[in-house]
User: Which sequence fits this backbone?
């Protein structure tokens, strides 16, 4: 028997008798973290298995860890770069799973939720983000102020609550549907792994998060929408309208969080990593500035670098004086 490390502390590979298995160590649920976890992953996977939804099979469930099936194949992140066209059959399979989840009765998961309907789900996501932002703002106030970001941003996000469609049934969702969590198996099946953010929630959020992270080409995104219109068994236009509301929320949340992550990178000396992270942050910040209600001014990479670099230098000087 051999245990292999992975890039995640929550996941290791067990090799036994020539076969591979995934060992999963669950994170705590019900605590305020950037991406809130409400439901035990094992509980979600058991429900998926019951309804023949493609996911790693749960082989053993213990108090401290679970053992899941190891899927032989290639991560979509390794096969396709961001903004690179992908095979349409992959998009077809993703649409099929999202729409299949929508048809399943996920009411068994409601006992874990802090929301009762789509509007309270959206509102909870806003509240959780606001709590995290308040902690970041307390420590990084100077950077946020120089960027023109304040708690006022949430008033515009909360304003969207009444617009969310409450007639749409709540759905089982993955919650973290991106290319690093999707395996193209050796048999050609797209299988999403890492269901620890899975819960019952608003399908519009799951789709919006997927689009935010997937970095489709404009052509592939339009194909995604056309297939969704063809296969979704509900009010598609209301769904797509809410997807856009969630995309704005997710963009705002990502921008707020990446102030912290960018400053974290600036505490090191890796120039290439700084440039990569700064470009990542700038694209999100400037996209958010296109929404005039947030009153943000677009920033150049040079201007952003100055904000983070000068703040970090002042912090280091203050530390030395102490």
Assistant:
């Amino acid at each position: 028997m051999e245990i292999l490390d992975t890039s995640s502390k929550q996941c290791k590979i067990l090799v036994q008798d020539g076969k591979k298995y995934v060992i999963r160590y669950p994170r705590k649920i019900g605590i305020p973290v950037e991406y809130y976890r409400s439901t035990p992953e094992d509980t979600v996977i058991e429900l998926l298995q019951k309804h023949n939804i493609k996911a790693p099979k749960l082989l053993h469930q213990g108090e401290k860890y679970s053992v899941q099936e190891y899927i032989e194949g290639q991560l979509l992140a390794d096969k396709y770069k961001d903004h690179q066209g992908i095979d349409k059959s992959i998009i077809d399979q993703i649409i099929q799973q999202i729409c299949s989840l929508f048809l399943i009765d996920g009411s068994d998961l409601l006992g874990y939720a802090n929301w009762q309907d789509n509007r309270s789900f959206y509102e909870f996501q806003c509240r959780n983000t606001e709590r995290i932002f308040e902690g970041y703002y307390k420590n990084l106030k100077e950077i946020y102020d120089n960027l023109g970001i304040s708690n006022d941003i949430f008033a515009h996000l909360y304003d969207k609550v009444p617009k969310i469609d409450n007639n749409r049934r709540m759905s089982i969702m993955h919650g973290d549907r991106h290319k690093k969590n999707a395996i193209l198996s050796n048999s050609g099946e797209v299988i999403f792994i890492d269901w620890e953010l899975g819960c019952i929630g608003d399908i519009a959020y799951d789709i919006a998060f997927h689009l935010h992270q997937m970095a489709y080409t404009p052509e592939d995104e339009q194909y995604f929408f056309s297939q969704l219109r063809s296969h979704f068994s509900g009010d598609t236009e209301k769904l797509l309208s809410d997807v856009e509301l969630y995309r704005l929320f997710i963009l705002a949340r990502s921008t707020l969080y990446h102030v912290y992550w960018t400053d974290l990178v600036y505490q090191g000396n890796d120039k290439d990593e700084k440039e990569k992270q700064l470009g990542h942050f700038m694209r999100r910040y400037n996209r958010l500035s296109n929404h005039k209600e947030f009153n943000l001014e677009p920033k150049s990479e040079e201007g952003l670098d100055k904000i983070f670099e000068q703040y970090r230098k002042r912090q280091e000087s203050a530390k030395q004086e102490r």
About this structure: The radius of gyration is 21 Å. The mean pLDDT is 96.
